[in-house]
Structure formats: C-alpha cells, structure tokens
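Let's do one together. I've listed all components of the complex below, 479 residues spread over two lines.
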Amino acid sequence: MKHYTYFPGCSASDGGARAYNRSARAVSRVLDIDLVELEDWNCCGSTPSSAVDELGAHCMAARDLALAEKKGLDMVTPCSACYVIFNRTNAYLKEYPHFKAKVDEALAAGGLAYRGTVRVRHLLDVMTNDISADTLKSRVKKPLSGLKVAPYYGCQVIRPKLGFDSPENPQSLDRLIASLGGEPTPFPLKGRCCGGSLIISEEGLALDLIRKLLESAAGGGAQCLVTVCPLCQTNLDAYQSRVNKKFKAGFNLPVLFFTQLMGVALGLGEEETGLKAGIVPAEKVLAQYI
Amino acid sequence: MEKKTGPEAFLDEICAIPGGEGIKLCIQCGTCTASCPNADKMKHTPSQLIAMARAGMRKEVLSSNAMWYCLSCYLCTVRCPRGIKQTDLMHAFECLAVRDGVSHAGTFTPTMYRSFNHFACALGSLPEVGFMAWFYMLSNPLRALRMFPIAVNLLKRGRLSIRARRLTPEGTSQLRAILDKAETLGGVS
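Okay, and this is what the predicted structure of the assembly comes out as:
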C-alpha cells in the first residue's frame, strides 16, 4: 500500500468534475494507493486569483501546504491547475526570501508555519511512476483492445518543467493507455491548451482552440479522448456541441478522465467510473468493454 | 531602494515581483510570441510587451489586453532560450494593472478573475455556479442566457451544484486571519 495526502480541488470535489474524483478514488483502491483527503483544505489560490491578488493567492496555497506538511506525505492532486499553483508557491518560497517572509507572517496569523517540504504531484505522475506498467497490466480485467484513444495532456500537467514528463512531447499517458490494452493515437496537439478559464470570458477564442484540438485528435483516428484535468474535460466535452455549431463541424468524441478509462479496464462499474456524467455519450464507443 | 523615475522606475516595479526580474534578460528573439496560441489575438505580442515595458511605456503596457489573453499554458516559459519565466511575467503585468485599477482592457477577463477571487477568498472554495452567475451579472447578463443549454446539460448529469463546499468554522476563520494579514503586507513585491 502506498500512502498520499490527497487534494481533490474544487472542481473534482464539489464541481463539474466529480466523476474524476470518484473514479480516481475507486481506481486507487484497486491499485493499493491510499489517498487520504487533506482535512479542511481550501481552494489552491488558482490562476485567476493570483492575477488579482497575488499574495493572497499564494497564501491560500501556503495554508494547504502547511496543513499537508503535518502529514509528512507527498500531496497528490488530480487537477493540473492546482498542481501548477502549488508547485509555483513552493518554488517562490524557496527562491524569494522577501516573499517568503510575507507568506510566513500571514500564515502565522492563522497559527500555521510552513517549512517548504511538501512535494506536490499530479495523479498522472503517481499512476504512471509509482505504479509499474506490469502491476497495472496484471490488474486489467477488460483489456481495451481495439480502442483508439487520444491522449490529451493539456498544458499545465507537463509545463513548466516540473519533471515527470516532457513539456513538448509527453509519453506517460500514451504508455498508460497501452498498459490498459488500448491504442494511443497520434495526436500532434496533445500538449496544447484547451483555452482554460478563458472559455468564460472569451468564449470565441477558446472555442477556436478546442476546435483545433478536436481536429487533431480526430485526424489521428481517435474514438475518444482522455484528459487529466477538470477544466480540459469541461471545455472539450461541454462545449463540443458549441464548436460543432460555430464551425459547422460534426465532432462526436467522448472525453473521459484518464481514471474513468482505467476504471473501465479494471472492471469497475458505472457507480465508480461515472461515465454517464459525460455530455458526449461514451457508452457506444465503450460498449464492448462495459 | 532609491526611487527612480522614467523607464527604470517601471522596470524596478516589475523586477520586484517574483518572476518579473527575468525581463532584463530578454533578447527579443520572438520565441515566446511564436509559441503563444493567442498571440494573434493580443493587441501586443508577448515580445512586444516586453520591449515596451523595457522602454518604460507603463501606461501602454498596463492597459494592453495581452496579459489577459495569456492562457498560462507555459509554452513560452519552457521554450525561452534566456530562461525567462514569461508566464509569470504576464501575471506580474496583470497584478500591476489591477493595482492601477484597470478593470476592462478590451476583455472581461479581469472581471472574471475578480469574480473568481471574490468567491475563492470569501468561501475558501469555488462554487462554479455562483461564480459564473456573478461574473455574467457584472459583465453581460445576456450572455448568461446563451449559457443556459450548457448549464442544463451539466445539471442533468449532476455536474452543477448550487451549494458551495464549506470549510469548518475553524478552518474558515483560520483562512480569514491569514488573508486579512496578507492584505496588510502590501502585495508580493
């Protein structure tokens, strides 16, 4: 059994990506990964907050890090945005003493202190590096043979250079799909951005980026996409019909969290995989495996 | 630090923000601009913005829409041959613009970020429905109507919850104490 502090993030915990949280926990149980949710965590501080109140945003991240430090374990998050934010706060605290002094002072007002020792990791890193491909293969009950899957990394899980995969041509998710018996398809834009939160304020701009991604995935022959981020999933799934309308396209690509696909291959049921939460239905594509 | 005037003063302001100091290393090679998925939508490209900042064009830089179109995808950051943290630099510009009271800049992104921050700070977590409703109210209520079909789709699949996740009362007051203190410390510089 491997033990981690778990930070689900707002979207996977109580927002639109609850199927991610549910499937991540279920798959972890099967693979002997113990995810203990960080008690009383708050929002990571997020990219939007750091644009309008940078110190406040870092302090929000620092509170979570200080709480996690008491547990002495790596902190794992399924959200690419939370992952980047925590790592950025960690890096700034090491690099800028003046900044650290301010964060320390703010934390002290809440009776907390942070020494900077928490390693923050993405769930994809854990699933592909702490669990060996052989272990995963040995647990597969329904090999996804014949299933063509576009591995969509998005941006923040591989950038900036946080180390577990290449920022330009990542491979970890490709390998994971292959371990499940599926076929990772060529996907030139697999590390490009989905538009992120700009889907809210600049929808036209984000739809354009989403269209390019869907085109790239479909061009490689994919039957579905897998993502590692709540925001990517929402943008590609919930806005796919809008892309079709705007660009007179006919995309019909289910967008799954990678843990949902793992759940299917590990033989878990709908209760655990939450496939029905997808707006572009996945049942047809996955019919022979579920 | 001695208070400078002219181009130097703006540069000092930028360099005082974590991640901002790299601006002095820029060689104007344009790699960031060539890598940016949104450069064509920006009033000034990332490399132009840097050149303008170094020339002390404070007002022009801080009223540009460029940093608000930054997706934080970090492609420029990993490609910069000078090791500049371009994305962090964009965040530094955003912070300075907010400090100067810029609220629109040709895009509602600053308003959206403010709405997000409002909820994240007040509740300690982000209720997606409340945040989006608040944003549309502040920007363009009519757009909320266009969101209706997407909202219905999400609702049908149990993906929209009105209720926000709440911290314990102790956690809430702890976070409040931390953020109140942070507010008195004069930003990251």
